[in-house]
Structure formats: structure tokens, C-alpha cells
Amino acid sequence: MGEKTVLVIEDNDLNLKLFNSFLQIGRYRALNAMNAEHGIRIAKEEKPNLILMDIQLPGMDGMSATRLIKEDPAIKDIPVIAMTGYAQEGDGENFRSAGFHGCLGKPIDMRNFLDTLKNLFADEGSPE
Ligand code: MN
Question: Helices in 13-99 by DSSP H: which ranges?
Fold first, then answer.
């Protein structure tokens, strides 16, 4: 199966560094974008195995970006996990109806982060 590639779309530099360090520890390949437009372009070019999407982004927000991803046949099958702030916790159902695979509430601890990714990839089973 090889290494899984995870695209992180996050505008906060410190959060981005934190998530990259988690991904490195989990032995994932990390791709980064700091806004939605750039993230969608990278998703199309690189076809990552997973997208971690910040909700509050400059310009297009993470909700709108995920709707666009889910409407694009080339990338709609890539699971997208929302990374939400305090105010958005408990909105899990809203996120799922917007097309998100799930959500991680900030602050995100490493164990929860890596468990979520491990479970997601385990549930996917063997690739088609
Ligand atoms: Mn943000």
C-alpha cells in the first residue's frame, strides 16, 4: 500500500507546523496549503489520501472548499476531515452533511489525531 499522503489546509503557521510534526511521527507524507484555493489545486495535482481542512481560512472558508471538492469528480472521493475551533464543536452533524468525513476539535492532541487517521485508513480497507 505504501505511504499515505495527507494534505493539510491550514492558515495558522504554528498549527501547520504542529500537524506536520504529528504526520511525520505517524510516518505520513505531508502536503501543505495555507488557503483553500491553493489546497484544492494541490488536491487535484497530487490526489492525497486524506485532506485535513481548517474551517476558518482567509478567502474561501473550509466549508465552501469542501463543497467544491465534493462536487469535483476528480477529487470527490478523497475523505476530508474538518479541523474545528471551540465554537464549532458539537456541529458534527452539520459537518457530515457538508460532505466532511469527520471532524477533529482544536486543540488537537497527537494521540487523538493519529488514532483518527489510523482508524480512517483501516476502515478504507484495501484500495481499489
Ligand atoms: Mn484558520
Answer: 13-25, 36-46, 62-71, 92-97
Q: Distance from the CA of 107 to the center of ligand 1, in angstroms? A: 12
**Spacing, Cα 118 to ligand 1 middle (Å):** 24
> How many angstroms separate the alpha carbon of residue 97 from the centre of ligand 1?
21
Residue 32 · residue 16 · CB < 8 Å:
yes
CA of 11 to the centre of ligand 1 (A): 5
The residue with cell 452533524 is 93
Residue-wise pLDDT for 14-72, tens only, equals 999 999 999 999 999 999 999 999 999 999 999 999 999 999 999 999 999 999 999 99
pTM > 0.85: yes or no: yes
CA distance 114 to 128: 24
In sequence order, the 6+-apart residues with CB closer than 8 A to the CB of 15 are 54, 83, 106
